[in-house]
Write a structure and sequence with these properties.
The complex is a heterotrimer of chains A (478), B (423) and C (130). Chain A is built from 12 helices and 23 strands. Chain A is α+β, with helices and mostly antiparallel strands and 478 residues long. In chain A, helix 2 crosses helix 8 and helix 10 (406-414) packs across helix 11. The relative contact order of chain A is 0.16.
């Protein structure tokens, strides 16, 4: 019997796992996909929000502001890139000024630091590509950008190094209450645990409702995005929001931490919790609405589009607590935006709840620091050459667009919870993430994966399951 | 720091022909830097025949065509480094490259010839909606998998894009056992050669659906089907024309883009119409001593033209190194070459009469299918030539030849205009 | 009487050519705008042939397959017989351009030859430059 089973290896589950790995406990994370960061965590705006959006007093507001504070130190501990670039919320009509002011006031009440309302001229000086019709903007310097994959992967890796077990391709089918703890039935074996953390993203309602009579309901709210080439990455220097409406924060325009330009998302409620398909209408809306905030967006430079699902709970707030009628079952549900920003705080809160409940003792040896994949491009010449002498694989470029070496790809595969698929390699190294979208490098990455994992090339997948890439050999059906 | 008279970036057809020509024009110290593990570039995976009719008067496959140049380069003992990625080129022609054995190293080049080729446009450029499962390949990736690695990307295939690569891949996949269900083309005409439409599609009963595009991709893990729809004159899908094609593979052959990361990085002035650098009559970019040829300059449809263009770049780079040129980059009188009505671009975009060879081939593309029109050349306001062309299409590169004599005869000449005109 | 419609492949014009046949005898060729079109149509209707390019498995080489082609064009209806026969052919590296891979393919009297070279695996290992 495990002390704690965490369901879901997205940012919430991974953050909870990492925080809990500070304590003496047998912990296991169950993930239905083949890798961490495969659901909501992989497809979002990659923004660290300042914290003025959520209703004052809501859990979202609390977690957002706390998460924002924790993100800096966490990024340093886990060796992941994070930049406080700031954000602007644009007001395009004089009559909307009270709403902008209300946002500012809410930010102050939520504890957001250093915000200012900027007049038109200052906004345009700061961001010359903002639409000329801007009349003022709320500037929040504490907002930032981060790589959601690296954050999620680093949290999980660090948890793993500190003793947390991860089981992939393991989807929870049912949970049965025992005298003490829970029996968790999956499509890959049955497990028992004293306590359970439900971090199942859009499925958190199903998991919750397996053990509790007080039902919750999560709507998958789809958002389409377009990602633009790095040539367009400097079109804006910080995240540009429109004034929020009732269905979320609207369409934003933001640089990404790796230098691309990201625009989106739309907000469409969908019944299918796997419906991550983009739609023609959605992509059109993204392009149209983004141009209301920022002018001259070079839409010809779109390199890919994708859709993500937000886990929207009917109560419109995060649910992070022990279920009222299921002792030891801790929900981490309704984690939509600002979930990515909040994850360090969510992990902290989940760990606190379980620590108090189970009387967990701190470990003597907890490794807080994790070393990320070495990116030779960030080294100076001598360091880089020393690395290549030591391991020539660092001298061989596999992904030409992002200049990723074979050494980085091998590291991504061999490290704890390493990559098993093309997408796994892509999210860890960025190989295939550039302007050719893996056209050149995918055959090479497939061969490296097959060699490193001791697999046949036919078993190499894009993202696990049935996502095989090659079907056979030439003429085999003739 | 090592020094070479000429450093050539890329060992494909352009790089090889440039190297051979530079050596034949008296340059001893030449280095080709190639990122792949063999010379020949994209030709290695173009195993169909039809290459070399102009250059060798015979029909060769891509690897055979490449081999002719590789053998010449080896006979001429031209130095090359394989598996070597060029990371950066400075405007002073310091080239930084990397490989497994040398690590990161820099070379000073007397002249640089850019010959990096091109890459394929990806799905994102078309914003095709739907899921993002396995089974979506660019035609070139599929070509590499089948022709070099021997793997079938899938069994039931739909191809978007009827340029020559899309057509060729329809036949290749068929001959290796796949079932190609349709080739869809957004435009009302195919960008490919007639011969390829007949011999790659008609021969195998593969339907070509003109004015059609992919409007949905189905399948969460692997492609399970695509939806094609007809498009209107503005390339917008027409509601109600959707047709589902169950398949496990979608190949995208939706255009090529010159690969100019290095050129842009060094600050070369680019031409938005070609996505390649702007060049003068010597195929020299805006940066002194840096030349460009082949698909990095503008996308070609015949490798024979690439070889010819690259040979010119090699000659000009050799002249530059030997100091035998009379005018400097940016110096001397420059006549503007402009693409007027019906013409998308010209290469080169300027001509300096003092520096031009006896004749200069100007290559260009038209912007639409034209039947029974003329290509006219204007020297300022005066029409100096007019050639009837029964048919012209954007997929087939056109050329005109200007002579030095002709240009020197017009000392006041400022602009040369190339245009498509009615008879 | 039988009519066959063809698209001429000689130039971008792509003339639609109609050939009238009486059994195997050509009665008329219309729709072409030049002599090349007529020649093409006559050949295509009576004796259509193609050069076939494809791949053959390689053992011990740097590539898994080698490109091959029929040395001359073969009857169009033999294309699939040709590739099916090549399905079971395996060649050992090294392979040089022009090497005969399969003689008299599908009883056409035409040989299939290597259209690319493949070096041996061992020779390739370790050395980057030749």
């Amino acid at each position: 019997m495990y002390d704690i089973i965490i369901i879901g290896a997205g940012v919430s589950g991974a953050a909870a796992a990492r925080e809990l790995s500070r304590y003496e406990a047998d912990i296991c994370v169950l993930e239905k996909e083949e890798d961490v960061c495969c659901g909501t965590s992989k497809a979002n705006s990659a923004i660290v929000h300042a914290g003025y959006d959520a209703e004052t007093g809501s859990l979202k507001a609390q977690m957002n502001v706390r998460g924002n504070e924790l993100m800096g130190p966490l990024a340093r501990e886990l060796d992941i890139p994070f930049k406080r670039t700031g954000s602007l919320v644009l007001c395009l009509n004089e009559e909307d000024m009270p709403r902008l002011q209300a946002l500012y006031d809410r930010g102050v009440a939520n504890g957001v630091k250093d915000m200012r309302i900027l007049p038109r001229e200052e906004v345009l000086r700061m961001e010359p590509n903002v639409t000329d019709s801007v009349c003022a903007a709320l500037y929040a310097p504490t907002a930032g950008i981060i790589c959601p994959f690296e954050l999620n992967i680093a949290l999980a890796e660090n948890a793993c190094v500190n003793g947390v077990e991860f089981r992939f391709n393991t989807a929870v089918e049912d949970i049965v209450r025992l005298d003490e703890g829970y029996e968790i039935r999956t499509d890959n074996g049955t497990f028992t645990a004293r306590c359970v953390v439900n971090a199942a993203g859009v499925y958190a309602d199903r998991i919750h409702n397996m053990v509790s009579r007080n039902k919750i309901h999560i709507t998958a709210r789809r958002g389409d995005y377009c990602l633009l080439d790095k040539d367009a990455g400097r079109h804006v220097g910080m995240t540009i929001f429109a004034l929020p409406g009732k269905n979320g924060k609207g369409i934003l325009v933001t640089p990404t931490i790796h230098g691309n330009l990201l625009i989106g998302p739309t907000a469409v409620d969908v019944l299918d919790k796997e419906a991550v398909n983009t739609t023609a209408d959605g992509l059109r809306q993204v392009a149209e609405k983004a141009q209301l905030s920022v002018k001259n967006i070079p839409m010809k430079q779109v390199i890919t589009s994708f859709a993500g699902l937000r886990a929207h709970e009917d109560g419109d707030d995060f649910i992070i607590k022990e279920a009222d009628d299921a002792a030891g079952f801790i929900d981490c549900a309704g984690i939509e935006s600002p979930g990515l920003t909040s994850c360090p705080a969510i992990g902290e809160r989940v760990a606190q709840i379980l620590c108090d409940k189970m009387g967990l003792k701190k470990k003597e040896h907890f490794t807080a620091y994790r070393k990320g994949i070495v990116h030779p491009a960030q080294l100076d010449l001598d360091e880089r050459n020393a690395l290549i002498r030591e391991n020539p694989a660092y001298g061989s470029i596999v992904c030409r667009c992002e200049m990723i070496t074979e050494g980085e790809i091998i590291d991504a595969i061999r490290r704890p919870l390493g990559a098993k698929s093309l997408d796994g390699v892509k999210r860890r190294t960025r190989a295939g993430m550039g302007r050719c979208q893996s056209g050149f490098c995918s055959p090479t990455v497939m061969n490296i994966l097959a060699r490193e994992c001791g697999k046949s090339i036919y078993d190499i997948t894009k993202s696990g399951g049935g996502s095989r890439i090659v079907a056979g050999t030439n003429k085999d059906t003739l | 720091m090592r020094e070479y008279d000429i450093v050539i970036i890329g060992g494909g057809p352009a790089g090889l022909a440039a190297a051979v020509s530079a050596r034949e024009n008296g340059i001893e110290s030449i280095l080709i830097l190639e990122r792949d593990d063999r010379l020949g570039g994209i030709l290695n995976q173009c195993i169909h025949n039809g290459f070399g009719l102009h250059t060798f008067q015979e029909e060769l496959t891509g690897p055979e065509y490449a081999d002719r140049y590789i053998r010449q380069a080896k006979q001429l003992e031209i130095e090359y480094k394989l598996n070597t990625m060029v990371m950066d080129i400075r405007p002073d022609r310091t080239v930084t490259a990397m490989n497994k054995t040398d690590g990161v190293f820099t070379i000073r080049a007397g002249a640089v010839i850019l010959a990096m080729g091109c890459r394929e446009r990806a799905r994102g450029a078309l914003n095709i909606p739907g899921y993002r499962p396995a089974g979506i390949f660019s035609a070139g990736t599929a070509q590499r998998l089948v022709n070099i690695e021997g793997y079938m990307p899938g069994r039931e295939v739909v191809i978007l894009g009827s340029g020559d690569i899309g057509l060729i891949m329809a036949r290749r996949m068929t001959l290796e056992g796949a079932h190609v269900k349709a080739v869809a083309e957004l435009m009302p005409y195919s960008g490919g050669l007639k011969r390829n439409i007949v011999q790659c599609l008609d021969d195998y009963g593969i339907p070509l659906k003109l004015s059609h595009t992919v409007v949905d991709i189905k399948g969460r893990e692997r492609v399970e089907g695509v939806t094609l729809a007809e498009v209107d004159q503005n390339s917008k899908p027409i509601p109600g024309t959707e047709e589902d094609y169950p398949c496990d593979t979608l190949l995208l052959s939706v255009g090529l883009i010159p690969e100019n990361e290095l050129s842009r990085g060094m600050g070369a002035v680019m031409d938005p119409a070609t996505s390649g650098p702007k060049v003068n009559e010597s195929l020299e970019t805006s940066i002194d001593g840096v030349f460009a040829c082949g698909n990095v300059l503008h996308v070609h449809d015949l490798v024979d033209h690439v070889s010819k263009e690259a040979a010119a770049a090699g000659r000009n780079a050799a002249a530059y190194v030997k100091g035998s040129r009379t005018v400097k980059n940016g110096g001397g009188k420059a006549i503007l070459l402009t693409a007027a009505s019906g013409v998308r671009y010209t290469v080169p975009s300027t001509v300096r009469p003092e520096q031009m060879e006896d004749s200069l081939t100007v290559r260009f593309r038209v912007d639409n299918v034209y039947r029974g029109r003329c290509i006219s050349v204007y020297f300022d306001q005066e029409r100096v030539s007019r050639r009837k062309r029964p048919v012209m299409a954007p997929g087939e590169m056109e050329e005109i030849v200007l002579t030095k004599e002709q240009i020197l005869g017009c000392p006041e000449l400022e602009t040369i205009r190339i245009t498509v005109e009615d008879e | 009487m039988e009519t066959k419609n063809l698209t001429c492949i000689n130039c971008p014009m792509g003339c639609s050519i109609t050939v009238e046949l009486d059994k195997d005898k050509i009665i008329s060729v219309t729709g072409n705008t030049c002599k090349r079109g007529e020649d093409y149509a006559r050949k295509e209707v009576t004796d259509p042939t193609r050069i076939v390019t494809t791949t053959v498995r390689v053992t011990g080489g740097r590539s898994a397959v080698v490109p091959v082609k029929t040395r001359q064009d073969i009857p169009k209806e033999k294309i699939f017989d040709c590739v099916r026969e090549l399905k079971n052919v395996q060649v050992k590296a090294p392979i040089r351009i022009g090497d005969v891979i399969a003689a008299d393919i599908a009883q056409t009297g035409v040989d299939v030859v290597a259209a690319g070279s493949v070096e041996e695996c061992a020779a390739a290992a370790g050395s980057i430059e030749e």
